[in-house]
Amino acid sequence: RVLRIGLIPGDGIGKEVIPAGRRILEALPASLGLKFEFVDLKAGFETFEQTGAALPDKTVEVLKTECDGALFGAVSSPTTPRAGYSSPIVGLRKKLDLYANVRPVKSVGSKNPIDMVIVRENTEDLYVKEEKTYEGPNGKVAEAIKRISERASTRIATMAGEIALRRQKIRESGAPSIHKGPLVTITHKSNVLSQTDGLFRQASKAALAAEKFKSVAVEEQIVDSMVYKLFRQPEAYDVIVAPNLYGDILSDGAAALVGSLGLVPSANVGDGFAMGEPCHGSAPDIMGQNIANPIATLRSAAVMLEFLNEEKAAAMIYAAVDANLEEGKLLSPDLGGKATTEEVVADILKRL
Ligand code: NAI
Ligand code: MG
């Protein structure tokens, strides 16, 4: 199978970590029967300065018509608002209908083991950005629309159920796990927002009640108490499904539990397309020093592969990364080590 992958380094350390993502894909053993073709694509603030568009049409077009997947580094946003600039990642999610943001959060060798996946709805909720400000009787008032649809809630919950089943299958193949069976936790605040979050809750429960999910345990949790439990008892979570805003907040919070932003991957997933994206930004404070941790990107390449149905290849990447972390000899400075980006990549490639 030949997979065509768009590479979008973006800005800052994106340019240092995306080449590492390419190298790990190229280093996968031939016995997997996988070949990769890469297309270099532009997006980000530098692209905006050069061309006037942060997300050139060509990038979208090539991804849509030629690619199976993509790796996206990070982009810098302007510190003061700039006319014509809008976030390329938000644009890509919309234009390619990447309706799920999937973020696995896993600890290695910690006494508080964590192994969860947060599945965040990516297209609606407060992020439809329909806001207005007006003069009320007592001064200015601002309002935003929170839009929840049955269709989007159903498809995100279905994806969460499928991820739970896939994780269970990997466990049954003998991979060590802290979880006994598949579990999906539905997150909402329907005690207050009975219509919007109420619909998310009801549609998610209905989707997860499907026959194919009969082995999946389903529980629900109100988002605030969820944050409490996430920090007190993170080992309790397997797969979490949430509307856009709660999912955004929970996933950055969960990332904090495993140490460094440089470790946490994500993927933006649609039907038949997956784009891996480290969850960190462009890190201008460390760019150009060859010390960026490449692991978030290497793991993002693995998440992308999982959603392109190449689970075996993904598992090999995860294992090579975990082995590097478990040994703990060649770590980048964000993890307290002294290794360069190059040295970390070389160690992981060797293990692969
Ligand atoms: P950031 O994630 O770039 O950096 C936060 C801190 O974590 C910094 O001290 C940085 O050095 C460190 N860090 C991040 N990734 C690392 C890695 N791989 N290895 C070692 N250390 C790492 O967030 P910040 O500083 O808030 O934002 C910087 C720029 O990135 C801004 O322009 C922001 O808008 C943009 N950004 C872009 C994102 C994206 O493209 N998805 C996400 C977050 C921020
Ligand atoms: Mg975020």
What ions, cofactors and ligands are bound?
1,4-dihydronicotinamide adenine dinucleotide, magnesium ion
Under CATH, the topology of the domain at 1-110 and 258-352 is which? Isopropylmalate Dehydrogenase
CATH class of the domain at 1-110 and 258-352: Alpha Beta
The helical percent reads 25-40%
Strand composition percent = 15-25%
The biggest beta sheet reads: 10 strands, mixed
Report, as a whole number of angstroms, the end-to-end distance.
20 Å
Low-confidence stretches: none
Mean pLDDT: 95
Tell me the strand order in the biggest sheet.
Answer: 2-1-3-12-11-4-5-10-8-9
Helix/strand/pairing category: alpha/beta
Please state the overall shape, judged from the principal axes of the Cα atoms.
globular
- Structure summary, number of beta strands: 12
- Secondary-structure element order, N to C: EHEHHEHEEEEHEHEHEHEEHHH
- State Rg: 20 Å
Gross CATH architecture of the domain at 1-110 and 258-352: 3-Layer(aba) Sandwich
Keywords: Amino-acid biosynthesis, Lysine biosynthesis, Magnesium, Metal-binding, NAD, Oxidoreductase, Phosphoprotein
Protein name: homoisocitrate dehydrogenase
Enzyme class: oxidoreductase
GO biological process, one term: lysine biosynthetic process
Can you describe this structure?
One of its GO terms (cellular component) is mitochondrion. This is homoisocitrate dehydrogenase. One of its GO terms (molecular function) is magnesium ion binding. By secondary structure, this protein is an alpha/beta fold. The protein has a domain at 1-110 and 258-352: Isopropylmalate Dehydrogenase, CATH 3.40.718. It is 39% helix and 20% strand. A hairpin with an 8-residue loop joins strand 4 (100-106) and strand 5 (115-121). Helix 1 (14-26) runs parallel beside helix 11 (341-351), helix 5 (150-172) crosses helix 6 and helix 9 (295-307) packs antiparallel against helix 10. 1,4-dihydronicotinamide adenine dinucleotide is lined by residues 13, 74-77, 89, 261-262, 280-286, 292-293, 296, 332, 334.
